[in-house]
Records
---
Amino acid sequence: MTITRGREFIQGVFGEVPGGFPGVLTRIGPDPLPDPGLYLILFKMFASPQHRVRRDVLRQHGGPTTATQIRIIHRLDPVLVHKNVLERLQSASEAEDANAALALIRNTALSATEDAIRQAIENLGDKIDLATFLNRWLAKMDRPPARPLVPENDPEVAVMTSGEAMASLGRRFRNCATTRVVYAAVGFEVLLEWKPSPGLVAQCHRLTDGGWVLTDIHAKANGRVDPVTAAAFRSKLASCGIPALSPGSMHPRTSGILSLLGVGHGGLGANLGFEDDNDLDELGSDLEASRRFAKANASERGEARGHPVFRRVGLDQDCPRWIAELVRQESRKRLHPDAKPSHLKDEATSRFLEMERTFGEIWKMRGF
């Protein structure tokens, strides 16, 4: 009698009694839903064939039917309508976030077809949360929404345009590049690799005008960034239209002052490899040794022996690594464009990059 009267009530309110609708109303319990509009949403879900999957997922979910579940199922993208997703969401807002994440994956990962994602959701294990699931798909990114205007085959700089490339970068540099994929996917930042030895990674952020700015430079294993190598990297990026943030060092020994006062650098731009007086002090003895070596090398032989690549920079092809490093460091200091007047910077940059390419060849030939 109660069931019959309930169906009559539904018939009177909605004009029909869709299959399964009385049952889901029973699972709501005796207390009314907080928003009367949810009853209409629920009715349409059970009355319309196009919402069959939403209806079935709601019915598959064990326990009472709640207002939150109805809102989540109602808002979810059709591809995400599955009990494995419903169980991992706590609010309608999270459902909207999941929809946005799915749209991001679709836009940036060519392999993210509807069938592939549906199958992955079907196979979602109990121990995998939704964040892990979505991050795994983002790792397949191969179509970032924006990238700086660096030639694809540039011999010195490589732009990381895929999750696979960023994972490889993270392994080679022993850093957290893999965790930055989402920032590249949303167009917030990009990572670039400086190929010449010893290699560096640049972190660039996108500006509102579509341009890019260099905000950080990282060495392997997040070690000390060589200021001369960093300067070459900054110069190259500047030639590609990517300026660096100011180091904020208009006063001598700025880094030392900040350290002494215990206030730190202040965030972005703290690690761009700009030379400080502290760095010059540390390099002083090595630079002096390289000068003595270069002078002795010239007076004893007149010119370097062996392969012509070595002769370009005054080295013997059998010289020990420490000698090659000292000469390279001295050459960087002497040719660096930052130390040249403005009207000579273009020529100095060209000579500096050519010198870096030469030493890069030497490093490869000798296996340094």
---
Amino acid sequence: ASGVMATDVFANNRFIISHGKCHFWKNYAYSVEGHPYLKVSHDVHIEDIAYIMHRQWRMESPRIVALIISNVAPLQDWTNARQIAAFKKGLMKAANSTNMWIFTNGVNMGAARLIGDAVEQAVKESKAYRSSSSAANTTGHTPRVNVVGIMREDHLRYGENIDGETVNLQNEGNLLDEQKYELNDNHSHYLVVRDNTVSKTGINMFALRIVQYLSTIGGRGEFSIDLLDQSGRTSPDDYVPTIADLCSLTNTEIPIVSIVIQGGYDCARLVLDHLKRQQPVVVLRGSGGLADLLAFAYLETQQRCRDLADTWDAEYVESFLKPELANKIVNRFPRLRGNTLARNIFRDRILECVRLARQGGC
């Protein structure tokens, strides 16, 4: 049954453009073990993506999902080496202690590269430990960390060349002036998105739909497909769940956490959408960009609330916080200096994020 269903996912599916494996040039040769990729339209059915990830890519259902919210830019402002090292170590410890899926923007720059470096270091340390004399008699395996890169096709230097079952890629450097970037080769999987929206916001909605699907469905996809395989049914529509099945589904919701590292103008809306869905958001203060603006506004309102025993002081926000936040936005994002409308939208989204985060009290 799985073979028939797998064929149906790709056949006559106008939303799935291409699929296969990416092989990166390393050590004077293309890697033998490729990285699975999927090129899709931004409005693809998320159920098809989930099916492919589980059944084609053999990814086990996650116990937790982490979405890294960050812009495509170097981490110039994040200079605290101890904080960076602690973040990388903590993330890998969490990923190795349970089945975690980590979603990034996938490019060889900024937060995605930082996480890719953490994965590479974790693999090297595991191999070194297993080859040492102290671990010679122990059994174990190299940690398999699922890090999925989600990026726009038109942002990749070789986006048009990612087509077919076997794709050979050679990273030669990002072209910052042209906004053309390369994939980080330490990610395990890639979702290349053809964003056909005018404002190019389809990529963010695509990422939001994936994590939202995982948070509400939980283990349902794997659970129902396995039932189909065992029963011989060829369509999920034929399956009628029992009371026990429904209880199992409701108990397998997957926790989602979003982590803001630096971040730019477009990231504010993504953070806001997550908070509206009451999903936790972790902001790494000191990483720069949007993260520092969110941290500033949150801490300012927290101090004000503590003094007034209130959750939101509208007069304080209008008279002090809005002007101060606008000045900080201009300093961190000079291109918004002459665009009052965009600057105010950015400012108001940040304040709305803070207001939603503080709804539970001071």
---
Amino acid sequence: MGVGKIINTIIAFILSANTYTVVYTQESREEIEQTVILSKDIVQETTEEKVSPAKAVARNPVPTSTVSPWWNYPSDIKNVTRRGDDFLVLVNKEYQLPSTYAPTDLVSICSNVTNLRCVNDANFLIRSILIADLQEMVNAATQDGLDLSIRSAYRSYSTQQSTYNYWLSVNGGNVGVTDQISARPGHSQHQLGTTLDFSSAEINDGLGGTFASTQASKWLANNAWKYGFVIGYPAGYESVTGYMYESWHYRYIGKANAQEMLNNGMILELYLRSKN
């Protein structure tokens, strides 16, 4: 689907006797094109195996979502209980960021981190406070003979709206399917400026299910927490996170917090719930 067909498209349909109208927001052509380029090759991943405690997955039985089915949003959406620049702010389907929130310390990733490629030479942004730990992690991966690239980083509220609308269009207006793989605006961890989508030359810098089988993905799963990065949506916990498994999606919460989360055998969603 071309970008021209995406911009200003309106999709209206009936779902469970409710009308849901989607309007693509007017953003700069460059920003919308980047969103589509970064999203178009995502595929769902297998959830046959849960990752180990070293990959920050709960050791104990975890509660499932109280919303049925698990990918639905609750009827009572709440505002986040911490500031957006707090590493432990809980952003999920129940808690949303304000549409006006944007980090004040965003910097270009590939202008500040070496040995890390930005796919399509995109000017990906991330909060400056995590640059040092990101560089340390990339250096360690490089020393282990691994290649890492970035497919997505900070997304504004309006860019997330475009991303969600794109996937809604791809899925024929099916909200249920779209809500399993894409966050609605205000509910995305990418708006925090502390979340990265990784890839590798092993899969030609692709994004999706094939990343899970790469050496880069396995290295991140075992080592990213040492540098403050933890996987956001682990395998086997879809009913807890509300999203399908994403092996490429990592959020920075700081080294001490990542260590505490690991020690407690918790996934990110449950760890953040305990802090909010």
